[in-house]
Amino acid sequence: MLITEFRIILPMTVEEYHVGQLYSIAETSKNETGGGEGVEIVENHPYTGNPVFFGEFPDGQYTHKVYHIASKVPKWVRILAPKGSLEFKEEAWNAYPYCKTVITNPEYMKDKMTISIETMHLADKGETENAHRLTPDELKKREVVYIDIANDTIRSSDYKADQDPAKFKSEKTGRGPLGENWIETANPVMCCYKLVKCEFIWFGLQSRVEKFIMPVYHRMFTNFYRQMFCQIDQWHGLTMEDIRAIEEKNKHELNEVRQKGSVKGTVVD
Questions:
Q1: How many domains does the chain divide into?
Q2: Does some domain include residue 147?
Q3: Cβ within 8 Å of residue 148, ≥6 positions away
Q4: Model confidence at 84: pLDDT above 70
């Protein structure tokens, strides 16, 4: 099993992030859906009485999604993968400020593949050493990766001028552009501690696939949070009621547009 903890520092409050993340997830889902691929939302509703973090945070929002991602994996995976095996189930328990997401492939890989993403959101700059309360053995396996949304290198194919935190300035909040040392002076500031655990039990492919997964999440997190910050004027000031209305509308639209047009979003060659 590989364990990587991504620490993404952002110039916003923990409360602002809650709305911004959900808004940007809805937008990203639309941008990644079309041509028979993308996001299918199966369930999205509140839950109560299900503690998800050491007996804490018993209430939250449950979502169940199916990802159709044939073009989002390397060509060698597409060649090896049987038809229908590139559809993945995602279950998420958003008990903010803690969230847990579990991704599986129940139709084909069953219990041979599990990716879990646990996220803790804290009002700091990534200094908390063990936000997820890992055991000593887990800490030995964990790799920590910091993501700077303004200064980290991204692929030229991923670059969008309107999603560049080094150039964007928010009209609503006055934040940005983010300079070389923005993390040192940012106020407000917070950190997403994203703990990704990947286990792939498949003889001959285990090491190759596990090592492929972490760079994919690194790329995805970097692009997503660049976009989220640069969309701040679109979501800043929205309420959770506004967000739930957007999500409900999105659920119906995604199921319709997924069957139309061409493949959209991030494609892996």
A1: 1
A2: yes
A3: 9, 183
A4: no
Domain at 119, CATH number: 3.30.530.20
On the question of pLDDT at 17 being above 90, the answer is yes
Residue 220 belongs to some domain of the structure: yes
| Mean pLDDT of the region 218-229 | 96
- The answer to pTM > 0.70 is yes
Host domain of residue 82: 2-257
Tokens 């039990």 correspond to 201
Give residue-wise pLDDT tens across range 117-153: 999 999 999 999 999 999 999 999 999 999 999 999 9
Three state DSSP letters for 200-211: ECCCCCHHHHHH
Is 263 inside any structural domain?
A: no
Question: Cα dist. 210→3, 204, 207 in Å?
Answer: 10, 12, 5
CA distance 152 to 228: 16
Nearest to 8 by CA among 124, 167, 153, 166: 124
For residue 194, tell me if it sits in a domain: yes
